[in-house]
Specification:
354 residues; 2 domains; Dolichyl-diphosphooligosaccharide--protein glycosyltransferase subunit 1; signal; eight-stranded mixed beta sheet; Immunoglobulin-like
Length: 354
């Protein structure tokens, strides 16, 4: 608690795959296979007025939050001005989309970008397994003109632990699924995909032509002349021991006094969102060898507070926080560092922090 004032697989292939992957993983794989068929059938529905000259995607998998930066160079190859650009996502991804922002600038050379409004749309004649967003341009893109569009997307609960249960001594392995091709309703002339991994071992990854793993970066492409709605599934199975802290519930209480003081109390119900703990938990092993017996657990929480916050207190469900540090950085924002010396968060355990 914290308070302060202030191609589609055959049936045999599908069954074999289900035997390897748990149900939570097999279902998205079947959906991806279905999507391949649907996007091929609806490829003719793609708009022909826009062409993506280049698409570069950078995926950050260094934490439990997936961040994707897509840089597009879009050209109006039609005869009429275009005022909106469509962005497509498979429904299995869109359900985990936490934030999306678009920045655009017109011209042959990329200049200072401005924020573009984004809304969910339902175009006619497109696959129902896709979710579409529309980025509205500040002024219509004329014939032959070029738009530089950057799209930032953030996904939660996107990485799936595999195996789903691990012992206290095991490292945590997760699975990431996507497409090596940028899913676009427009044809793409040239495109690349770069995936940044947190380090550690990489169990496996899908290999196509122009696939390269260098240190902690996995690269796909470049691919040329990719048709609209092209989807080329990839799976990356890798080690990720970063904290998977998830607030299942957050309640904020704000009290404003007659004297102008503001008191804010936040109640968090926090769980470890990664692999579940298999077997018993040994606190002795954890304290004696924390980086070998509990490497995927997390030991602290960080709260970023307003610079004028004061009279700060915090506690958990048993009444105390073991160790804490409070300081301000160069931007005058106070940081509350809550350290759990006694490891209140072994894999998949829960606690209530106030």
């Amino acid at each position: 608690s914290l308070s302060c004032s202030g191609p589609t697989p055959s049936r045999r292939e599908t069954n074999a795959r289900d035997a390897i992957w748990p149900p939570s993983m097999a279902t998205p794989l079947r959906l991806a296979a279905l999507l391949l068929v649907l996007v091929a059938a609806f490829a003719s529905a793609a708009r022909a007025d826009l062409v993506v000259s280049r698409a570069d995607r950078k995926v950050d998998l260094t934490s439990h939050i997936v961040r994707v930066l897509t840089s597009l160079k879009v050209e109006n190859a039609g005869s009429e001005p275009v005022s909106k650009v469509l962005l497509a996502f498979p429904n299995i991804q869109a359900k985990n989309l936490a934030a999306i922002r678009a920045f655009g600038t017109e011209g042959k050379v990329k200049g200072l970008s401005s924020v573009l409004p984004i809304e969910v749309v339902e175009p006619s004649g497109v696959p129902p397994e896709l979710t579409f967003f529309s980025a509205s341009l500040h002024k219509p893109l004329q014939k032959g003109k070029i738009l530089h569009l950057d799209v930032l997307t953030v996904f939660t609960h996107f990485l799936q632990p595999f195996p789903e249960e691990i012992t206290q001594a095991d490292s945590q392995l997760v699975v990431f699924q996507d497409s090596s091709h940028y899913l676009s309703p427009y044809p793409v002339k040239v495109q690349t995909l770069s995936i940044r991994l947190p380090g550690g071992r990489v169990e496996s990854y899908t290999k196509y032509g122009n696939t390269k793993l260098v240190d902690s970066e996995l690269k796909y492409g470049p691919y040329e002349d990719v048709p609209p709605f092209s989807y080329n599934p990839i799976i990356v199975h890798f080690e990720n021991n970063n904290p998977f802290a998830v607030a299942k519930e957050l309640i904020r209480e704000i009290e404003i006094s007659h004297w102008g003081n503001v008191q804010i109390t936040e109640h968090y119900n926090i769980v470890h969102g990664g692999a579940r703990l298999k077997g018993e938990f040994s606190r002795l092993d954890y304290q004696s060898r924390p980086y070998a017996r509990g490497v995927s657990s997390f030991r602290h929480l960080i709260a970023r507070l307003p610079a004028r916050a004061h009279s700060i207190y915090y506690r958990d469900e048993i009444g105390n926080i073991s160790t804490s540090h409070l300081w301000s950085d160069s931007k005058k924002v106070l940081l509350l560092f809550i350290s759990f010396v006694m490891a209140k968060f072994p894999n998949k355990s829960a606690t209530h922090v106030c």
